[in-house]
Amino acid sequence: MTRYDDLPYRTCVGMMLINRDGLVFIGRRAGGPEHVDPEHVWQMPQGGVDNGEDYWKAARRELYEETNARSVEKLAEFPDWLVYDIPRTIAGRAWKGRYRGQKQKWYAVRFTGKDSEINVVSPAGHKPEFTEWRWEPMKNLPDLVVPFKRPVYERVVAEFSRFA
User: Fold this and answer.
1) CA 118 to CA 116: how far, in whole Å?
2) Share of the chain above pLDDT 90, in %
3) Is 135 exposed, middle or buried (0-12, 13-18, 19+ CB in 10 A)?
4) Measured between alpha carbons, how far is 122 from 104 in angstroms, rounded to an integer?
5) Smallest Cα–Cα separation from 34: which of 79, 81, 93?
6) How many domains does the chain fold into?
């Protein structure tokens, strides 16, 4: 088994979906080993990038797979990759023990559709990753996510706050 410190980061994308009122989509995770407590189970859509896949295309695909939303306009791309480590205590259970965390490319997008377009229960024929969702003020996001992702969320909120 590979030592935790030698594990690579999983390449991912994240989407901050912002509605016309400046509120952000946040979904309650359906499950996973990263749930460290019942309070910090919310997150924005995010997911892995397939080999050779364009990052923006991957972000749109992940958003659609997780939320069913397609009515979006790209507002901005975070200028850097953001990285987080998962706790060592769950590293063997998350992603089949192949990664120590994620490196993420984040995008801010404006949701231009109607709320009825969003469907987290049966999104795009994909296995649901969220059990419920809501629009949340951007400033609240870091306090809703699992603590080990909080620094990433703080940077994303700071970078994209101009769109709230």
Assistant:
1) 5
2) 76
3) middle
4) 25
5) 93
6) 1
